[in-house]
Amino acid sequence: MSAVKKVFYILIMLVAATAAAQETLPIYQQYLLDGKFLINPAFYGETDDVAVNGNYQKQFSKFSESPNVQSVGIHANIFDRVGAGLSFFRDQNGPISANGITAGASYFIPLSDDDRKDQFSFGTSVNFYNMNIDYSELNAQDSGDPVLYDGSNSIFIVYAHLGMQITYRGFFGSASVLDIPLSNDIPVVNGIEPSPTKYILNAGYDWQFTDGFSLEPSFLMNLNTNSSRLMDLNVLAKIYSDVNMFAAGVSLRSAKDNVGSQQTSISPIVKAKINRLTFGASYNIGMSDIQTYGGNSFMISLGYSFENFINKRGYRFR
Questions:
Q1: How far apart are CA 233 and CA 22, in angstroms?
Q2: 219 CB contacts (<8 Å, ≥6 apart)?
Q3: How far apart are CA 8 and CA 3, in angstroms?
Q4: Bigger pLDDT: 315 vs 209
Q5: Are the CB atoms for 196 and 222 separated by under 8 Å?
Q6: C-alpha of 123 from chain center
Q7: What are phi and psi of 13, to 5 degrees?
Q8: Which pLDDT does position 96 carry in this prediction?
Q9: How far apart are CA 244 and CA 305, in angstroms?
Q10: How far is CA 316 from CA 43, 50, 121, 162, 313, in A?
């Protein structure tokens, strides 16, 4: 490994070990790969099926111990107009590891009789989050420092999430508030700052050109209480039938905080649905010199929609 790469790797580890605020589930392209329920509980039970979705995100692909995130979730319409969901994630970032379990429910209001395409919903969920720092992975200047052995290397916080969403005649929009602390909400616990509360806005339009072909422009805005802003501009072209679908497109991401503009990235995206099986992938190409040494990142997604064995009566329109 070259000296430059060694310095870069050390920098990643230091940032991970001294981060002022640790995120719960980092937001990448999950919401474009059938994972909207992960960032907005109003999407629990958005279809009549029992939907399962899993995602894996790898950053700085040139390093074996670079940050990676895994998530898996399930949600369904459980009776009448009520949906429910459960998800789990793990975020490994050098010596820092974080885990979270989220459970919640939603309620739907139909806006037409058009097979659940036009509907409004709202929902809430609770996240049980734990973060841990493994000091044994740090190369401390003073190995006898009592901070390394006093047990103050983890934090447990319960967060609340709120959300709502609407789909109507091709238009879709949603808003959610994530990471509202319900416990340990003081500024710093064990030297670790809780995750900032996030405000997520997502909207777009499914523009149908002909039967079986549409173009879907959309955007996502991620604001938080640390004065950070993340903006995604997306476009997907979709070819579909009653049971199958293929989509390809691109997502352009820019980020800004109170220090200044951060790096911009562009992500080609593909996803498909074959009968009840769904899969997708994105490749995040960073527009900075960091990627020269650390590599880019990627996400893969896999899902399956089971026939609803929980609520056989189905969704109630009236």
A1: 25
A2: 202, 203, 204, 231, 232, 233, 234
A3: 9
A4: 209
A5: no
A6: 17
A7: -65, -40
A8: 81
A9: 13
A10: 17, 16, 14, 23, 8
Burial label for 231, CB within 10 Å (0-12, 13-18, 19+), is: middle
Neighbours of 185 (CB within 10 A): 12
Cβ neighbours of residue 25 under 8 Å, at least 6 residues apart? 38, 39, 69, 71, 89, 91, 100
Which band of pLDDT confidence, cut at 50, 70 and 90, is reported for residue 15?
Answer: very low
**Whole-angstrom Cα distance, residue 113 to residue 117?**
8
What are the distances in angstroms from CA 27 to CA 24, 79, 180, 209?
A: 9, 30, 16, 31
User: Cβ distance 272 to 302 under 8 Å?
Assistant: no
272-297 residue pLDDT tens: 999 999 999 999 988 776 666 666 88
Six-digit token string for 142: 């003073």
**Inter-CA distances, 112 with 97, 108, 109, 116, 241, Å:** 45, 12, 9, 8, 22
| Residue scoring higher pLDDT (70 or 94) | 70
Residue 20's Cα: distance from chain center in Å? 20
Contact between residue 37 and residue 75 where contact means Cβ atoms under 8 Å apart: yes
221-255 per-position pLDDT tens digit: 999 877 688 999 999 999 999 899 999 999 999 98
In the chain, the amino acid numbered 198 is K
Does the pLDDT at position 140 exceed 70?
no
